[in-house]
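User: What would this chain look like folded?
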Amino acid sequence: MKKKLLFIGITMNCAGTERSFLSLVNNIDKEKYDIDLLLAKREGKFLDLLPKEVNVIEMPECGEMFTLTGKNAPGAIFKCFVKKNPLLIFKVLPYALKMAVIRKKRSLIAMRLWCSFLKYMPEFDASEYDSVISYWGDKTMFYMVDRVKAKNKITWLHFDYSYPERDDELYGKYFSACDKVVTVSHTLCESLAEKFPDISDKCTVIENIVDPKLIRDLALRGDEFPDGHFSGTRILSVGRMTHQKGFDKIAPVLAGLRSEGYNVRWYIVGDGEERDSLINSAMAAGVPDIFLFLGSTDNPYSYMRDCDLFVLPSRYEGKPITVEEAKILYKPIIVTNYLSAEEQLDDGKLGMICGMEPEDIYRAVKTLLDDNERKDAYSRALADKKLGNTEEIQKFYKILE
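Assistant: Here's the prediction, encoded as structure tokens.
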């Protein structure tokens, strides 16, 4: 008899968690598992890439609460809660005052406020499912624990819990209420267990599944760089344009490279709330002609195939799937020293790990631009290594037993 699984997500936009989910769900044995996906909003370019066996359900109410930004939060809170119960404005005011006064703790207070609204969200009866998985972390975990009736609750962490600062008391309570806590790297698992020793027996590692054959096939089908005439060095970054990804460091790096006479162009595949500020930073640094935005796509792999250098300048990460994909295509890689960087690049044998500051990234990029032999050595090391990990699906089956 088939087991029934319910995954809880937010959207199917082009981002790392969504790509990770696609890889996982494509590898699940559909003869043994029925899969439903509950989304806050039924939207995103990756919706069309879901296997036909996945049944997508949209939350009937309050989906806006999972896609809050500083701009849309007041409107979403009003629509979902205050409009129906005007007295709830008195619940919001104390939090709003705290956020105005204690600006350094703003994100922590905002998450407390978000969780305080859970009791007003409709319950979801998942008692028919064998397991419920909050795959998008954070808010999907809070929602699953408080509003979903289920036998077995599993949460997934794609991020480094230690950065940015989080509310240990709040998260600890919710982690304890889950039957399993999955992290995507051993480093993250150890860090989380050290922070919350009471849940160490619940922590397990399932790496983001990467299928080399699929990625290499897709790399042959996607778009090419629009400036085919360019004969210099192409540097590529892939990801959402957010503070986390550190793309704001690129313009000063490019300005330094240009002043040194390097013929380079740096491309970003992705979109996000920082797009306008990145364009402004490129203008201010005098590099708008060599800092180029390719937009969001469901297939970045052809750009990865044709780039000369892949760089991820993130401030913090879990274990980013884009780096695993660049490894599959044997690209010379530079990453900043986020928590799992050494684990991901085998202590620097498979790529270069540098500091977080723009000058650190500048030195690393300059080093590889000047040293073709070192770039080739990284590519050869990747070609010699067994890459891909579709066998990770067996670990997933094990936690469902």
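The domain at 3-211+392-399 is CATH 3.40.50.2000 (Rossmann fold). If you want, I can go into more detail on any region.
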